[in-house]
């Protein structure tokens, strides 16, 4: 029975698309990793909770087949912002999010990074240390 569950999960993983624009955040890549962890021994893996395994597969299969999209159709393909699906994909890509994160850094953080020591030996002396030393 474990062999058939394993084959069903493998088939689902093959069909699930991988979004290359979401490096490290893609559901398809995460799903593949979790299936590999859960079925370490392949078809010979012993499943402790077969009902939970079957329920997880059914839930993922419904998501993959767009069951809920068809069951509850939207009247329009738009959102409150008016952006299209392609525009959302562009905004939510890993590269764009990294650029936005860099833009949102404050001036103080940018200066700290610019003048931060490159190696541990180059630790700058704090202004407190320079004031506390006796002058000769």
Automatic annotation (TrEMBL):
<feature type="compositionally biased region" description="Polar residues">
    <location>
        <begin position="127"/>
        <end position="136"/>
    </location>
</feature>
<feature type="region of interest" description="Disordered">
    <location>
        <begin position="114"/>
        <end position="136"/>
    </location>
</feature>
<dbReference type="Pfam" id="PF20180">
    <property type="entry name" value="UQCC2_CBP6"/>
</dbReference>
<feature type="compositionally biased region" description="Basic and acidic residues">
    <location>
        <begin position="114"/>
        <end position="125"/>
    </location>
</feature>
<dbReference type="GO" id="GO:0042645">
    <property type="term" value="C:mitochondrial nucleoid"/>
</dbReference>
<keyword id="KW-0496">Mitochondrion</keyword>
<dbReference type="InterPro" id="IPR037698">
    <property type="entry name" value="UQCC2"/>
</dbReference>
<keyword id="KW-1135">Mitochondrion nucleoid</keyword>
<protein>
    <recommendedName>
        <fullName>Mitochondrial nucleoid factor 1</fullName>
    </recommendedName>
</protein>
<dbReference type="GO" id="GO:0034551">
    <property type="term" value="P:mitochondrial respiratory chain complex III assembly"/>
</dbReference>
<keyword id="KW-0809">Transit peptide</keyword>
């Amino acid at each position: 029975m474990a062999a058939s569950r394993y084959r069903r999960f493998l088939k689902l993983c093959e069909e699930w698309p991988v979004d290359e624009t979401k490096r490290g955040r893609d559901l398809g890549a995460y799903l593949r990793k979790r299936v590999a962890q859960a079925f370490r021994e392949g078809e010979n893996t012993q499943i402790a909770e077969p009902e939970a395994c079957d329920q997880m597969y059914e839930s993922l299969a419904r998501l993959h087949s767009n069951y809920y999209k068809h069951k509850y159709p939207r009247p329009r393909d738009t959102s409150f912002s008016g952006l299209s699906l392609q525009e959302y994909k562009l905004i939510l890509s890993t590269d764009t999010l990294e650029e936005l994160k860099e833009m949102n850094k404050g001036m103080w953080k940018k200066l700290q990074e610019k003048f931060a020591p490159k190696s541990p030996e180059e630790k700058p002396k704090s202004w407190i240390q320079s004031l506390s030393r006796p002058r000769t």
